[in-house]
Amino acid sequence: MKVLGVKYRELIAPGKSINLINNKNIYSLLIANDDITIIFDNKTIVLKKGFVTIGRCIRVFNHNDNYCEIRAIIYEFKDNALENPYILSKKNQKFKHHFEHIYEYLASNLLSIDKLSDEICEVIKKISVTDNELIEEDVDERLQIIYCILKNRYNEPLTLNYLAEQVFCNPVYLSNCYSKAFGISPMKHLQFIRMEEAKQLLLNISMTISEIKDEVGYISGSQFSTYFKKHTGKSPNEYRKEYLIRGEVVETV
Question: What sign does the dihedral 237-241-243-248 (CA atoms) show?
Fold first, then answer.
């Protein structure tokens, strides 16, 4: 393993992206001061603040409204076992000691390159690369990624298979783990988030039912109405009329 370069404080403007690596066997360890989107092989993952990604990360995209600062270590690694990036918490006891030393280097540049290489190698060794299912110690971290995707991208055509790809695990296994952690499956949670958002949008009489259906991620109007009635006991029109009578709807220009 060989460290090729370090980005100490790279600022990314809102809505902009930067390329980290382009070549085979080149990988990165990435830290950001805010949630950031990492892109690889046409897939995206939201890296939450307080987490570290290590592995092959092609591009970093700032989806925030403000500038985002990233710190990254670019390194060469002959083994392609970390082709897919792993998401790890800085507080994870399994890696905490190594991350403290890595942070020390990024903050003060006092750690030698050789020592930095050793620390990254130790992190890589401790990551289970024998299977692509969720690592037991990191279950909560991976599930938080899925939770973040559902909360921020509920209006996209998300599927269980797509969600599972984001954390490199079996869809059934992901659903079971998510259900145990949050008491609801990821797809039912997605439906719940969409319905709660639809309830708020229905109070805005400037939006049509069709526009609201599109806004919360449904293609079919009948499917949207069916789910909404199951969720609230009322059709979208009935729900809006009830609040219109109460005088609780709003109109925006």
Answer: positive
C-alpha span between 212 and 200 (Å, rounded):
10
Alpha helices in the chain (DSSP H): 96-108, 113-126, 139-152, 160-166, 171-182, 186-201, 209-215, 221-232, 236-246
Give CA–CA dist 51/128, Å, rounded.
Answer: 17
Query: Do 237 and 198 contact (CB within 8 A), yes or no?
Result: no
Whole-number mean pLDDT of the chain? 79
Average pLDDT of span 100-118:
73
Q: Is the dihedral of CA 76, 78, 80, 81 positive or negative?
A: negative
* 23 CB burial (10 A radius; 0-12, 13-18, 19+): exposed
Q: How confident is the model at residue 138, as a pLDDT?
A: 44
Rounded to the nearest 10°, the torsion over CA 170, 174, 175, 181 is 160
Task: Indicate the DSSP class of residue 131.
Answer: -
| pLDDT score for 93 | 63
- pTM of the full predicted structure? 0.50
**For residue 241, what are the contacts with CB-CB under 8 A and spacing of at least 6?**
none
